[in-house]
Amino acid sequence: MNQVKISRTEAYSLLNENDMNVLNQKLNEINEYVYKKYGSCASFDFQFYLDKETNEIFLEVVSAENKVLYRFVFRIDGRGRKPIGITKKYSITLPKQYYHALDMFLHDEKLSASEFLRLLIVDFVDEKKLFKQYKINDDDI
Questions:
Q1: How far apart are CA 83 and CA 96, in angstroms?
Q2: pLDDT at 80 over 50
C-alpha cells in the first residue's frame, strides 16, 4: 500500500457531496462508538490517510497513547470502476455493533461493502437455485 497522511480538509477535497455526507455520518457514528466503548473522558484524534494506488481514504481513530481504536476504509466514489450490472439501493437496519464488526471485517479482508454483499447475494441465489425456481434467463432481463 502507498499510504500518505492527509488532513481532514484534503480528505474532504477528494470527495463529492454524497461522499462527504457519508463520511460525516461515519464520523458521527465513530464518535458515538468510541465514547460508549472507551468512556466520555477518552481522548482521541481522527487521522486520515490516502492510498494512492487504490484511491481509498483510511480513517483512523487514535487514542492519546497512539493506539488505533477504530479504523474505517472509505472508498472514493468508485472512480475508474467498470460497471458489472444494475445498481439498486437497499437500506437495512442493524444494531450498530454489527456495522462496526462488519467494517473491521471488510478492512481485514480488503473488501468493500458492495463487494461483500454482492458475493453474499450471488452465493445465496446460486445455492437456492432462484434463477431456475423463478424461470429467469439472461434474455428476460
A1: 30
A2: no
Q: What is the pLDDT of residues 85-141, one digit of tens each?
A: 777 778 889 998 998 888 889 888 888 888 899 899 989 999 999 888 888 876 655
Domain span holding position 23:
3-82
Contacts of 13 (CB under 8 A, 6+ apart): none
Q: Which residue matches cell numbers 480488503?
A: 110
Per the structure, the count of domains in the chain is 1
Residue 57 lies in a domain: yes
pTM score: 0.50
Structural domain contains residue 127? no
**C-alpha to C-alpha distance for 79 and 140, rounded to whole angstroms:** 30
Residue 45 has pLDDT above 80, yes or no: yes
* Residue 26 · residue 33 · CB < 8 Å: no
